[in-house]
Amino acid sequence: MKQHWMFLLILSILMGGFFSCKNSGARKKNVIIVVIPKFDNTIFDQVKRSSFEAAKDLNITVTWEAPTSVDASKQKEIIENLIAYKVDGILISCNDVEALKEPINAAIKAGIKVATFDSDCPGSDRLFYIGTDNQKAGNVCAKTMLKLYEKANKNPDQVLILSGGMSANNLIQRLDGFRDSIGNVKISDVIYSFEISDYGKELLEYNLNKNSHINGVQMIWGTPVLGGVDSIPSLLKFMNRGGVAVFFDVSKPLLKYIKNNPNCATMKQDFHSMGYDGVKNLYKAIKGKEVEKQILFDVKVIDQSNADKEMRNL
Do strands 27-29 and 19-21 pair parallel, antiparallel, or not at all (unpaired)? Predict the structure, then answer.
């Protein structure tokens, strides 16, 4: 792991040129920002692309260092190595709120500017968080689900919630927001996939087959369904029986399904801004300029009324 990312970092430095020359002949240090997602997951592809776009526009070096698992110790290891390499900035989506406070603070003490995206680390000394307003997003999920129930002339009952990790701040906030709006009495269970897509599919299969009284599915972590609802047979059967579902994030297969089915919706996040504006604002901080402590985005509800338009935009 260490050798892999160190090689990529060194290679990027050599290719970008650790020192670039101005027209005057003076040497200027190339700014290096490292982006660390929770995991090497396709959901972060747009963040990756837009962070590289920002690097090109700013004429700096950005590297992408994804941990090999969602274990917070992997992200901690990456941060510790980046401290040794004296990079200028770190933009990270945190797997674990508590476990990453200390390494983030250590990086900042070492003179590295650190910010979070997607999943925050409140209580740390990070400069800013950029990403979804996750508490509000959970609230929007619940309100969207209640509207779908009303449209289907059903009462919310036995709602099954699929989350990712138990310690990721974004998922904790979404769950809190959902509970606040829908009420605990209507929730059947909360199941955790630890952000492993195939395991998430297995959990949905098992729980939907085990409990025939479930009439709602809320995915506050939506990766398992991005390959399409039909990739999870029990979920497809559940939906065909008139079940209500609110997903999270978007893909062409998922939007195609939503376009043809009135009893479901999903939430769209602004991943492009997380990467592009995250790098841009971190660069500003490196240059000594002030940045906002929180840069929050609302989710956009995608349902049958606008799924086709959103699909054409992908």
Answer: antiparallel
